[in-house]
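We modelled the chain as a single entity of 220 amino acids. Its sequence is:
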Amino acid sequence: MRLDRPAVLLTCLLLAGCSPAAVGTSTSSPSRGPVAGASGTAAPAGSGRAIAVGAGPQQHYTVQQQPAAGSCHYRYEKGEPLEDPACTPGAISPAVTQANLKSTICRKGGYTSSIRPSTYVTGKEKELNAASYHFTGRMGDAEYDHLISLQLGGDPNDYRNLWVEPADPGHRKGSGVNNAKDPVETKLHTAVCSGTVTLAAAQQAIVADWTTALSRLGLG
């Protein structure tokens, strides 16, 4: 004798205690924010929170979806601009680890340039991200910045690791990009490659607050 579906469902629920999903119904997952170009997984980095792991270097990069226009807000520390951690929490590349530093970020010449997205891709992303942050300044004076820089193992094109960084206080309008964050990244890179600090510690210090990263690690 053939039982129709409602009868099977009722019998299952009353006698076996099963859920509707067990008899072929489905549930939907809540929607999430932009995920293009990112794996969505996370890896522990030092003693701080886990940092997302991006897709890593690609042969062909595509323009990534950015946070909604006006949804991101700058913070400032002693006048220096900081990213919105809700929009730009940082993302690391799976291609760079503590074990392979000598063949990646610490090798002499060419690593970061070999994995950097084209200006065609980043130019379009910069415009979209400027809208995300409601940036209205001069675009030529703002840097489309990797929060965790490529020389510290940051993901090349994950939207979580890129933001339009405004010029520093006192910056002369029209003089181009010249941010105080850049030398901080270079000092951290030197410390990582010399073994003074671990890669994870440097990455954590940057995502916590790049303006205090060096002092946090006892580097100045």
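As a brief sanity check on the tokenised model: The two ends are 81 Å apart (CA to CA). The chain has a mean pLDDT of 82.
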